[in-house]
């Protein structure tokens, strides 16, 4: 398989740009492909069509069919092929069209991709990235609005991450591709059309070959404090970050200060950043779209209870989806964590 980049014809935008979430991922993918000829993309309709959400739009024309590969409708085959390519030195990035379509590849991901490094005693690495548009809020139906991230976080050997803004998406997708580990990259599809400022760095012709620093791995490992606060720590990630920030604005109008933490990664979990915050506030609420029962919020809650027991002034509370299949579109607003549900949890923790 050739990995030439000779097809590139136009320079990408540079400097600070206001971009949609989807476009930020597009340019992050492009930057990774320019910097490393071993990076290639695979998925259903990602080539000429540019993907269902047009995230790979333009990359086929720029890099060609051997680096932007339209695959058959077979998720297990996509991931299995990517594993083989990774073992031969490539860095494949797979796109799963919708969250609920990932389950045909579940066996390949959890029994092969996650375990090959450990099984080979570290001799083999499988740097595969699996991009998964996930979550609700777009008026879609079951199998198009799932939040299955905890199923993969439960499996040792996988990184499970989710960006929350265009700037985070741009840097995190490059860090995921550069990582030697398999990465499940969950993209909150409800945020695809939201815009934000992104620092794209220098133009192509200003970048000296061989001098490009590796993407900072910390963006995949460390939570970030999005909004400082003093009264309650609210922990979240992905598409729910924007919802929690709106709740923080509403709470501030009533005199309550929320500290908002974006986990970035569901696995590995940065407990230290959350615990440091909770030791100051004494209260914690965890918010995510996935069902609360056995969800990632439970892991956060138990770790914070273990590490901050003598600092907690109230139990750690969770806000999330219900233990039901994803509802029809006209009812999804009742299912998804809303500003009101977040504020209700804040009120309950303050009442203790």
Give structural notes.
There is one protein chain. With 352 residues, this protein is α/β, with parallel strands linked by helices. Helices cover 34% and strands 19% of the residues. The strands form three sheets. Strands 3-2-4-5-7-6-12 form a seven-stranded mixed β-sheet, sandwiched between helices. It has a five-stranded mixed β-sheet with strand order 9-11-10-13-14, sandwiched between helices. Helix 7 links the parallel strand 6 and strand 7. Helix 1 (21-35) runs parallel beside helix 7. The longest helix is centred in the first third of the chain and has 15 residues, at 21-35. The protein starts with 15 loop residues before the first strand and ends with a helix.
Short description:
This protein is an alpha/beta fold and 352 residues long. The chain has helices spanning 21-35, 59-63, 75-87, 106-113, 116-119, 149-153, 166-178, 218-221, 240-253, 271-281, 296-307, 332-335, 339-350; strands spanning 16-20, 39-43, 68-70, 91-95, 129-134, 159-161, 183-188, 195-199, 224-227, 232-236, 258-262, 265-267, 284-291, 317-321. Helix 3 (75-87) runs parallel beside helix 4 and helix 9 packs across helix 13.
């Amino acid at each position: 398989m050739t990995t030439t980049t000779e097809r590139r014809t136009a320079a990408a935008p540079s400097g600070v740009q206001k971009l949609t979430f989807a476009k930020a991922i597009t340019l992050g993918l492009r930057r990774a492909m320019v910097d490393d000829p071993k990076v290639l993309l695979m998925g259903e309709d990602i080539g000429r069509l540019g993907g269902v959400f047009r995230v790979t739009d333009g990359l086929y024309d720029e890099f060609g069919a051997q680096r932007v590969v339209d695959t058959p409708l077979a998720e297990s085959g996509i991931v299995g092929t990517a594993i083989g390519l990774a073992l031969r030195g490539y860095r494949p990035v797979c796109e799963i069209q919708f969250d609920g379509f990932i389950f045909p590849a579940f066996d390949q991901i959890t029994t092969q991709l996650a375990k090959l490094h450990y099984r080979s005693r570290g001799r083999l690495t499988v740097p595969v990235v699996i991009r998964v548009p996930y979550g609700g809020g777009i008026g879609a139906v079951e199998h198009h609005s799932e939040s299955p991230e905890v199923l993969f976080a439960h499996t040792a050997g996988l990184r499970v991450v989710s960006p929350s803004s265009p700037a985070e998406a741009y840097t995190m997708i490059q860090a995921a591709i550069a990582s030697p580990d398999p990465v499940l990259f969950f993209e909150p599809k409800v945020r695809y059309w939201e815009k934000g400022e992104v620092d794209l760095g220098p133009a192509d012709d200003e970048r000296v070959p061989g001098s490009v620093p590796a993407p900072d791995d910390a963006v995949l490992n460390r939570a970030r404090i999005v909004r400082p606060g003093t009264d309650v720590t609210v922990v979240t990630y992905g598409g729910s970050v924007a919802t929690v920030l709106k709740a923080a604005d509403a709470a501030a109008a009533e005199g309550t200060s929320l500290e908002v933490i974006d986990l970035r990664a569901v696995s590995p979990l940065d407990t230290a950043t959350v615990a440091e915050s909770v030791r100051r506030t004494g209260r914690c609420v965890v918010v995510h779209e996935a069902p609360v029962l056995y969800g990632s919020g439970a892991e956060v809650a138990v770790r914070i209870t273990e590490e901050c027991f003598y600092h907690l002034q109230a139990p750690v509370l969770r806000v999330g989806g219900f233990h039901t299949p994803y509802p029809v579109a006209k009812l999804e607003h009742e299912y998804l964590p809303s500003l009101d549900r977040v504020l209700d949890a804040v009120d309950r923790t303050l009442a203790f």
